[in-house]
Amino acid sequence: MSFNKTSVSNQLAASLEKMIRQGRWATGSQLPPLRALASQFNVSVNSVQAAQQALVEQGLVERRARMGVFIKDHPRQGSAGKRLIGVIRPSETLQAEGDVQGQIDLDCNTWIYQIVRAAESQLLGPDYHLATLSFPADSRDPMASLQVQIERLGDDLAGVFGAACPGLVPLWAQLASRKIPWVSINLPQPGSVYNFVAADNQAGGRQLGSCLAATGVDRVLVLTTALGQRESIEDRIMGVYQSYLRAQRSTQGIEVVVCKDVEEQSGYQVTLEYLNRKGPRPQVIFALGDKLALGAIRACREANVSVPDEVGVVGGTGLELAQYSHPSLTTLNQPMEMIGQHVAEMLLEMIRGGMCQMLGRRILSTLTWRESFCVPSEIRLSLEQQCREQTHKPNTLSAFTSAPRSAAHPTPSGGL
Question: Model confidence over 39-63: pLDDT tens digits?
Answer without folding.
Answer: 888 889 888 988 888 888 877 888 8
